[in-house]
Amino acid sequence: MISTPLFVFDTETHAIRPGLLAPPLVCVSIVQARACRMPSEGPLVAPSDPGTLFNADDGAYQVERALLAEARAFRFVGHNIAYDFAVLAAHRPALLPFIFDAYDAGRVSDTGIREKLIRLATGDFTTDMSSGSKRQSKFSMAAIFDKRFKIDLSADKDDPTSWRLRYNELDGIPVALWPAAARDYAIGDAEKTYQLWCAQCSDDYSGVVDKHTGLVTNEQEQAAAAFCLHLMGVWGVRTDHTTVEALAARLEGGVKAVRDALTDPSVALFRAKDGSKDVKRLRTMIDAAYLGAGRTPPSTEKGGTSTAKETLLAAPVEGQQTVLDGIPVLQALASISADEHNYATYIPAFRHGVSVPINCGWNVLVESGRTSAWGPNWQNLPRVGGYRECVVPRPGWTFINADYSTIELCALAQVCLDQFGYSEMARALQSGRDLHLEMAADLLGITYEQAYERRKTSEVKEARQMSKALNFGFPGGLGPETLCTWAWATYRVKFGDTPEEATEAARGYKNRWLARWPEMREFFRMVSMASASGGGQFTLVQPKSGRLRGGAGYCDGCNSYFQGLAADGAKAAMFYISQECYTGRSALWTGEGMSPLFGSRLTMFIHDEFIGESPEERAPAAAERLSEVMAAGMKLYLPDIPVKCAPVLMRRWYKDAEEVRDEVGTLVPWEPKENK
Asked: Residue 70, Cβ neighbours under 10 Å: how many?
C-alpha cells in the first residue's frame, strides 16, 4: 500500500505566445487520493474525490495549502508539472520558495518523466514499436495513453475548436457557469494523470518502481532538474539586432558566392537555368574523388552513391577541382548545406530574440542521462564564430558563466575508482594535473613538468590537441578507424595521410593511451563482459543515481557510465543554483542573509557549462557563487575527484571567454582582443 496522499493537479491557461512561456492562469483541476494500492494488492483505490475544478485564485490557494501542509503530507503529481508550477508561481510569486522546497524534499512526481525512466529501464526509450516501425518516442499524455491503454486522445488534443485552446474565453467567469465540456476537459486532464501514475506502479516494473512508495528510480532528481530547465525557458534569452543581421548577411553572402561558383560551366553542379542541383553530376564527382584515392564511396540504403554532407566533407581532396580560394568542390558544396541549414534554423529565432525573449524548450532526459534543447538547440550551436556572439544579457545585466573542466574524464576517473579501487586518471587529477597535457607529455617522451614549461610551443600544443582526441574518443568505445574520422571532424587531428596509415597509427596511439591509463583495460573488459552476457545488450545501472538503462550496447554502455554520472552531478548543481537564484537559499548556502546568486537567473545549460544573467553591480559575487555551487553539487556525485570550474563575466556570449580579474582580484568582464 502506497500511503502518501497524492495531490494530482493540472492547470489551464491563456495561450503560450512568443516571449511568454508562463501565461496567465485560468483554472486548476485537482484530484486527491489518500492511498493507492499496487496492482498486485487488488483494485486501485479510487481518488477521494472525482476531481474538483477551481478558478485561478482559489486553485492557487488550494495548491498553497497542500505545499504548506504539516509533515509534508502530499506528493504532488502532474504531467509536465514543471509548466504547471511555473504558471502558479507567475500567478502567485510567494509560492516559489515552497515549490522549491517540495522539489528539494523529493515530493514531486512528473508522469512524463516517470514514463521516460520506465521506458529507459526496459530498453524502449527511443523507439516505439506500436506502429510496427521504429520512430522517435513521444511522451505527451496523448502518446502515452495511445501506447499504454490504446486510447486515442488526439481528437481532443488536436481539435482547434476544443476547450484546450480556448480557456482565455473563460477567464474571470465562475467555474460553475462554464460549459460542461470546458469543465470536463480540465478535470479530465488531472484524472488521466492520476490514472497514469497508478498504471506506472505496475508490478511489471518491479525493478525500477519501489513497491512501498510507487516512486521510479531517479525520478525525484530528474523532476527537480526539469523544473530548473523550464524556468530557464521561461526567463529566455535575448539577442542583439546588429550582430544578428551581420550573421544573416554573412550566411546569405557565403551561400550566394559558393552557389555562383558551383553554377559556373566549368563546375556545373547547379543549373544556371533554374538553380537546381545536378545530382547525377554530383554523384559522378563523388565517385571520382573516392575511387581516385582507392576508396569506396559511401552508399545509401538502396545502394546508390551517398550525397550526404558527411560524404562530401570526408571526400579525398586530391584530384578535386577547387573553387573560391582553393576550397575543393565537394567541401564547398557541404558548406552551402551547413549555411543554408543554419540560416533557416537560427536566424528567425535570433531575430525574434531582439524584441522578446527566446523561450527555448528543454528535455531533461535522453538515453545517456544528458539533456537536450530545441527552439533553437543552444547545446549544439555551429562551432564557427558569430552565433554565440548574437546572445546578449538584458540592459543593466551581465552574463555570469562557468564550465566544468574535463568533467566527463573526472566522472570516468570516479567510476574507475569505485569499480576497481584505483585510477591513474584520478591520481593525476588529485595531483592537480591536466589530463591532456599528461597524455601529451607521454606522447612526446618528456616529463609532465617539461611539457608544462613548454606548453605554449607548437610542438606541445599539437601533442595536447592529439591527446584531447585520444582522451575524449577512446573512453566511449571508438575503434581506431572510427576515431580517425571523429578526430578529424571534431579536432582537426590527422593520424595519417591515407586511411590505412591513419588507422594503423590510431592502433598504436590506443596502446599508448591504455598504457598511460591502465584502468581503462578493466573498464572496457567490464562493459564487454556485461554486453556479451546479454547477447550484445545489457541493463546498465547508473553509478550513484541507480538509473537503469536497458538494451545498452557496448558503446552505449561505455559512454553512459561517465556521461550519465557527469550529467547527474550537473543537474544536482543546477537545482541548487536555481533555488538560490529564485529564493536566496539552498541546502548548500550556509552564509548569512541571501545567497549572492539571489536575483540572478540561469539562461542556458550546455552539458558542462552554466550561463546566467545577473544585475551588473552584483555580477562578480554572483559568478563566484555560481562556480562554488557548481563544484559542490558535482561533488555529491564525484566525491573523490577535484572539481574545477572557473567563474567568468561576459557582456555577450563568447565561447573563448576566460576568468579575468582586476588589480584587487575582483572579477571583471572578459573581452575579445579586438574590443580591448
From this structure: 5
Which domain does 473 fall in, by range? 424-516
In a domain, 536, yes or no: no
For residues 84 and 185, state if they share a domain. yes
Residue corresponding to grid cell 557565403: 254
Q: Per the domain annotation, does 526 fall within a domain? A: no
Q: Are 402 and 645 in contact (CB under 8 A)?
A: yes
Domain of residue 197, CATH code: 3.30.420
Distance CA(509)–CA(229), nearest Å, equals 40
Axis-axis angle for helices 619-635, 554-583 (nearest 10): 140
CA 584 to centroid of chain Cα atoms: 26
Summary mean pLDDT of the chain: 91
DSSP-assigned letter for residue 667: B
Global pTM reads 0.91
Between β-strands 397-403 and 322-323, what pairing exists: parallel, antiparallel or unpaired? unpaired
Closest by CA to 22, choosing from 634, 582, 460, is: 582
Sign of CA dihedral 50, 72, 118, 377: positive
Dihedral of CA atoms 547, 552, 556, 562 in degrees, nearest 10, equals 30
Residue 161 within any structural domain of the chain? yes
Residues 115 and 197 in one domain: yes
Give the Cβ contact number of residue 419 at 10 Å.
15
Same domain membership, residue 68 and residue 16: yes
> Grid coordinates representing 446?
618528456
Residues 6+ apart with CB under 8 A from 552: 123, 531, 537, 538, 539, 540, 560
Element (H, E) at 434: none
Grid cell 489518500 — which residue? 34
Give 86: exposed, middle or buried? Use CB within 10 Å, 0-12, 13-18, 19+: buried
Give the Å distances, CA to CA, from 104 to 50, 53, 231, 365, 588.
29, 28, 16, 19, 12
Cβ partners under 8 Å of residue 56, min gap 6: 24, 25, 26, 27, 28, 91, 171
Residue of 397, 430, 395 lying closest to 416 (CA atoms): 430
- For 379, counting Cβ atoms within 10 Å of its Cβ (0-12 exposed, 13-18 middle, 19+ buried), the class is middle
Task: State whether residue 156 is helix, strand or coil.
Answer: helix
Tell me the per-residue pLDDT of 12-24, one tens digit each, with 9 for 90 and over.
Answer: 999 999 999 999 9
Confidence grade of residue 34 (pLDDT, cut at 50, 70, 90): low
CA angle 350, 366, 123 (to 5 degrees): 150
Q: Which of 629, 521, 558, 562 is nearest to 418 (CA)?
A: 562
- Same-domain pairing of 396 and 428: no
Beta bridge partners of 10: 29
One domain for residues 505 and 569: no
- Pairing between strand 548-552 and 372-374? unpaired
Alpha helices in 150-218 (DSSP H): 154-158, 180-199
Confidence of residue 39 (pLDDT cuts 50, 70, 90): very low
Pairing of strands 669-670, 647-650: parallel
Residue 12 backbone dihedrals phi, psi, to 5 degrees: -120, 140
Domain count, the chain: 4
Q: Is the dihedral of CA 475, 480, 485, 491 positive or negative?
A: positive
Quote the CA–CA distance of 509 and 517 in Å, as a whole number: 12
Residue 52, CA atoms < 13 Å, CB-side half-sphere = 14
**437: Cα within 13 Å, side-chain hemisphere:** 16
Q: Has residue 550 been placed in a domain?
A: no
